[in-house]
Amino acid sequence: DLATLQSLGDQCGGAFERIQAHEALLKSESQFRLVWNATDDGMRLATEQGVILMVNAAYARMTGLRKCELEGQPISIVEPEEKRTSVRKKFLARIKNREVRSQLEIKYTLWNGKTGWFEISDSLLEIPGQPTLLLTLFRDITKRQEARAELDTITQRLLESSRQAGMAEVATNVLHNVGNVLNSVNISANVVTDILYKSRSRGLSPAMELLRQNNGRLGDFLANDPKGQRLPDYLGHLAEQVNEERSLAMKELNTLRGNIDHIKEIVAMQQKYARVSSFRETVDLRDLIEDSLRMNGDSLMRHHVQVERVFEDVPTVTVEKHKVVQILVNLIRNAKQACDAGSRDPKIITIRLGATEKTARIAVADNGIGITREYLTRMFTHGFTTRQQGHGFGLHGSSIAAKEMDGNLTAQSDGPGHGAVFTLELPLNPSVT
Questions:
Q1: Residue from 255, 245, 240 nearest 195 by CA
Q2: What is the tens place of the pLDDT at every residue in 47-74?
Q3: Which of 184, 173, 181 is nearest to 295 (CA)?
Q4: Are 379 and 371 in contact (CB under 8 A)?
Q5: How far apart are CA 122 and CA 97, in angstroms?
Q6: Strand ranges in 141-267 using DSSP code E only, listed in sequence order
Q7: How far apart are CA 401 and CA 359, in angstroms?
Q8: Interatomic CA distance for residues 210 and 230, integer angstroms
Q9: pTM score above 0.70
Q10: b/e per residue, 337-351, with b = 16+ CB within 10 A?
Q11: Mean pLDDT on 210-220
Q12: Could you give the 3-state DSSP secondary structure of residue 104?
């Protein structure tokens, strides 16, 4: 009896385990069907021969076909007719080589000509003794790709705007310098005009007329006539005045010629850096700093700003010259404006050139108005400016130009009244792109 009861208990226990397993299977199948039918991702189960076994509602919506039109059909049914043969061959090759796609983003054209972006991932289902199946998930990312493309377009426009603004900063400085020199040219031209207009050399005409009238008796005229007696002294004083006027005119003409040469130099320097090019050249940063200072030279002189140079021995670097000059011209101009807005005297800009193991550093420091902590975090933001007439492109464009050369542009200030330091870092060994 005990043995019989034991056997009966074992059978009941086995039956109970089978019931539990069946219930777990039903629960798992229910959860699978819930996921299969409720997900927004398209799901397709296909045989290794490329025949669709099952699809969910999301996949049917994506393809524009009903489930009954898909299940039992080749996977190529969703493709344009001219591509179906090649798609089937590729599928069979992937199954044969056990190749799966993991989060592949692809632009897809369906049988009806509809085009969209999909993220596709595959999973091989291999059960011993059973045919191999391929489960493929499709996620429609068309809106995401369109948003990304729009963002790329906007970013490119901002980059172009910033680049043009940076070039405008350089051109503006050139125009300011040329304008300052033209003021000197205008002054010199007015001085020469005034000298010629008031010249005493006009007195030679009456003197020559007296000599012509007394041509036959010059000796008697110069010796006995009162006018003739005064004529030699008059001509002597006139000669001295003409010589003095000539010296003044020559001095102003030399100044005028020097200013014209200065204008030519400024324009030639701008033309040298105005060539928008992505070619990198190996240069000495000292030369680029000096060129940038010359572009701001007249403005710095007119505003009585002193420039101090602290240059260490730095290796040559390979950079896009026009971008470096664009950045430096903008930094020097901003430093000059910060000095003007501050109350310190003298106004001083200090340019330091140094290097670390991997980078060259150019720091432009001023003793001007300084920058608040709040503004420091926004200095390189597109459109941000503290100047009433500013457009907010200069520092933003400079920051982008630095990054395009694998460099970096940073700002530092101890607060209002303590000046600011902008540091440009450039790699000594830039990556080749």
A1: 245
A2: 989 999 889 988 998 889 998 999 999 9
A3: 173
A4: yes
A5: 14
A6: none
A7: 16
A8: 12
A9: no
A10: bbbeebeeeebbbbb
A11: 77
A12: strand
